Amino acid sequence: MAEDRQLGLGEYLRHQRADMTPRDRDGLSSLSHRRVPGLRRQELASVAGISVEYYTRLEQGRASRPSREILNALARAFRLSEAELEHMFRLAGELPPRPRAPAAHIRPGLQKLLDSMDDTMPVTLHDGRLDMLAFNAAAAELFGPVFGDGPYGRNIAYQAFTSVGLHTVLGSAGAEQLTRVAAAELRKALSLYPEDEYLRSLFRELSANSSEFSRHWERGEIGTWRSAMKQVNHPTRGVLDFDSQMLHDPENDHWVMFFTPRRA
User: Fold this and answer.
1) What pLDDT, on the 0 to 100 scale, is given for residue 31?
2) Are 178 and 166 spatial neighbours (Cβ–Cβ below 8 Å)?
3) Residue 26: predicted pLDDT
4) Which residue range(s) make up the domain with 148?
5) Among 148, 146, 152, 222, which residue's Cα sits nearest to residue 183?
6) Residue 132 and residue 58: Cα distance in Å, rounded?
7) What is the DSSP letter of 155?
């Protein structure tokens, strides 16, 4: 089994190297008379900062299990995407490294999706730290100005325990559901990003100033909710019922929430 894994890693490295050109890396001259595509092994090894002998053994499936440092060096040399890096780590028998924080930028296509549904349904997007990144016009009209200023002004967990506006919009039962989910999701976020000072500071803030947060935190729940029925008190349209569903973009750790109106 380990031998098959080594051969799989070697094949993956060969394919990655074949897809590269000297123009992909500073300091490497263009070699126009090559008969094969990609970089030479010595060129790739130089970029990664490892010996060409060891890199050759990796490609041939004859090397010992590479360290995480070697794998990270290869990932930088190949400029692997998050998905490609995770695949290479698994081929090497290692758990993929966790990103230090969710992606800061929204995929353009995802933003277009939100905007295209203005006349269809409310859609929101938040990251794995529970910060609201975007919402379409339908969501803004539905929920109103529930987010504020300050370091946690756009954080869902913080607003769940401090915003009067959310309690007005969701009612007592909905607000109780939100605070329970928010505490559980914050616990999950802290487990994913344990060194994130923003999340640690948020936890300290809520622990010190919200007895309601402490009550929910003591339940020890971890976020697992992906769908729910929500009631929203609209200022002019009355009580509206929605089925909410969350979809995950794992590479960026972004969550898209769709609010589908329930038909009477």
Assistant:
1) 46
2) yes
3) 53
4) 108-261
5) 222
6) 43
7) B
Q: pTM for the whole thing?
A: 0.76
Q: If we measure between CA atoms, which residue out of 191, 183, 190 comes closest to residue 220?
A: 183
CA–CA separation, 252 vs 149, rounded Å? 24
Of 264, 4, 16, 248, nearest to 126 by C-alpha is 248
Overall number of domains in the chain: 2
Distances (CA, A) of 98 to 46, 73, 103, 189, 254: 26, 16, 12, 12, 14
Same domain, 136 and 207: yes
Contacts of 26 (CB under 8 A, 6+ apart): none
Could you tell me the CATH number of the domain that includes residue 225?
3.30.450.180
| Boundary of a domain, candidates 63, 91, 119 | 91
Ordered mean pLDDT values, 10 residues apiece, the chain (264 residues): 70 92 54 62 93 94 91 94 90 88 91 92 95 92 78 93 84 90 96 94 97 96 86 87 92 93 80
Task: Tell me if 239 sits within 8 A of 232, measured CB to CB.
Answer: yes
Among 91, 118, 152, give the residue marking a domain's end. Answer: 91
What pLDDT, on the 0 to 100 scale, is given for residue 96?
Answer: 87
Please report the pLDDT score of residue 127 as a whole number: 96
> Where do we find the tokens 């300290």?
204
Q: Are residues 118 and 248 both part of a single domain? A: yes
Q: Distance (Å, rounded) from C-alpha 11 to C-alpha 21?
A: 18
Residue 98 covered by a domain: no
